[in-house]
């Protein structure tokens, strides 16, 4: 089938490359020529482990890239994967969706049936909006010449290729039988893992043929649109809950690592998304929860639990800053090193991260900030030019004359740092590990004043994420 993906961001690049790998001639369209030039040169326009290798192999064969919408004319399926950033009031900005729909309408073939797929995370009712725009731009009739369906993405940045080739579920929302049939045919190779033994040789992750097959779930359009928001909001609620439990654990002297593990052993709860942090952030959770809450308010059915999760998340950011202030007292003129700017490891996405919020609070208190991130510094600098911080080429540099170091993102690279050498150049040996990621016992032995979140000041971390102290450079 001829596939087109509008947008070359995290959704479009990964989705387009995946269908090309599966043998569908796929064209990625983006109005940014620099991104298209990268794709045509065999390079991914985003950082995603393993994506460069696939783009390099399939570009010019089954994967193509252009700034022109002409390929829409011959497409069987057109995915819309453009950005939907938040407006000031928290609602989704559909400017790019509307523009994509208008251009799709201008290039639709009048004598073939085309399925237009909303892959971006969009509010309930967006399929109707896109349908109306395409009808007006094309002069064609929905249901006869084209149909708009909802097929939300569930990709985790840093693990997007695993998620696209081995999804838990594929949700397709459509009220049109012909469109449903086309989508079933499109996803057949993925669901049935056709030729996976061969194509998996190019995967940057291990291929396990015993992994359960994806559930192909069909529903109506509005329910599909709702599923994505409801899913992300639920995960945000779960993270906010365990972070609140962590704050209570600190007060009562309990260990949140054991509490979370004990909770997760209950199959009704599960252990995923029970990892304590300085708060959830990133390109999805903040905007999706804000839109979901605003929609509920708009229609008089406020999602009070989502509202509470958003407020709790803000308090978690403040809690981290308060821990630093309690330890270092007056922060005016203090030098603080920050490790990690992206909202999670294995991505360069630094758009709406906990780091930006926490750094702003520290700057407001007069602190001088030095930062490092293995992949995210370029984007962080571009999207947060108002944050006057010093960017360090190496992680060790954040320790220079520092009154404290704060680990915000648990990159594996930070386990390999020469923590003994870093200690020797710090002014005050304070280390706040907001992910309970580093080996507390060893660091205390080196002379650090180590603090985590929700583990108290004297608790030992046994069986945590890192017990093999030998991997640290000491």
TrEMBL record:
Pfam entry (one): UDPG_MGDP_dh_N
Name the residues that bind substrate.
Answer: 154-157, 228, 273-277, 344
- For the protein in the UniProt heading, the enzyme class is oxidoreductase
Domain of life per record:
Bacteria
Protein name, per record: UDP-glucose 6-dehydrogenase
What family does this belong to? Belongs to the UDP-glucose/GDP-mannose dehydrogenase family.
Q: Could you state one GO biological process linked to this protein?
A: UDP-glucuronate biosynthetic process
Q: Which organism is it from?
A: Lihuaxuella thermophila
Under which pathway is this protein filed?
Nucleotide-sugar biosynthesis; UDP-alpha-D-glucuronate biosynthesis; UDP-alpha-D-glucuronate from UDP-alpha-D-glucose: step 1/1
**Which reaction(s) does its UniProt entry say it catalyses?**
UDP-alpha-D-glucose + 2 NAD(+) + H2O = UDP-alpha-D-glucuronate + 2 NADH + 3 H(+)
The Enzyme Commission number assigned here is 1.1.1.22
Q: Which residues form a coiled coil?
A: none
List residues binding NAD(+). 30, 35, 84, 121, 157, 287, 351
């Amino acid at each position: 089938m001829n596939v087109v993906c509008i947008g070359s961001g995290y959704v479009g690049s990964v989705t387009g490359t995946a269908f090309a790998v599966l043998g569908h001639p796929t064209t990625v369209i983006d109005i940014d020529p620099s991104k298209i030039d990268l794709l045509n040169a065999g390079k991914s326009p985003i950082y995603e482990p393993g994506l460069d290798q696939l783009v390099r192999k399939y570009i010019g064969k089954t994967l193509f890239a252009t700034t022109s919408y002409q390929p829409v004319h011959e497409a069987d399926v057109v995915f819309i994967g453009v950005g939907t950033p938040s407006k000031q009031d928290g609602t989704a900005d559909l400017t790019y969706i509307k523009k994509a729909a208008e251009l799709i309408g201008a290039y639709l073939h009048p004598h073939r049936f085309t399925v237009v797929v909303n892959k971006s995370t969009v509010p309930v009712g967006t399929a109707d909006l896109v349908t109306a725009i395409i009808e007006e731009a094309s002069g064609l009739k929905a249901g006869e010449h084209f149909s708009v369906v909802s097929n939300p993405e569930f990709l985790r940045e840093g693990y997007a290729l695993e998620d696209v080739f081995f999804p838990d579920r594929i949700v397709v929302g459509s009220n049109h039988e012909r469109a449903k049939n086309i989508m079933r045919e499109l996803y057949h190779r993925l669901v049935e893992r056709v030729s996976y033994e061969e194509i998996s040789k190019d995967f940057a992750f291990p291929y396990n043929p015993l992994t359960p097959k994806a559930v192909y779930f069909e529903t109506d359009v509005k329910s599909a649109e709702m599923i994505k928001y409801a899913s992300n909001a639920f995960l945000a609620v779960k993270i906010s809950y365990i972070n609140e439990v962590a704050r209570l654990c600190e007060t009562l002297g309990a260990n949140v690592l054991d509490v979370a593990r004990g909770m997760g052993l209950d199959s009704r709860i599960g252990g995923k998304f029970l990892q304590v942090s300085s708060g959830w952030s990133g390109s999805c959770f903040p905007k999706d929860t804000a839109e979901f809450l605003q929609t509920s308010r708009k229609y008089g059915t406020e999602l009070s639990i989502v509202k509470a999760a958003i407020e709790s998340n803000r308090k978690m950011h403040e809690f981290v800053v308060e821990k630093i202030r309690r330890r270092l007292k007056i922060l005016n003129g203090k030098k603080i090193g920050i490790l990690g700017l992206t909202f999670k490891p294995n991505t360069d996405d630094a758009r709406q991260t906990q780091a930006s919020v926490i750094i702003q609070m520290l700057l407001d208190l007069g602190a001088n900030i030095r930062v490092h991130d293995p992949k995210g510094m370029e984007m962080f600098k571009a999207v947060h030019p108002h944050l006057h911080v010093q960017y360090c080429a190496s992680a060790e540099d954040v320790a220079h004359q520092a009154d404290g170091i704060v680990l915000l993102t648990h990159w594996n690279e930070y386990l390999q740092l020469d923590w003994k050498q870093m200690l020797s150049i710090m002014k005050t040996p304070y280390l706040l590990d907001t992910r309970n990621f580093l080996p507390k016992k060893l660091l205390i032995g080196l002379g650090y004043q180590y603090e985590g979140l929700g583990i108290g000041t004297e608790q030992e971390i046994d069986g945590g994420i890192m017990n093999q102290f030998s991997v640290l450079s000491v």
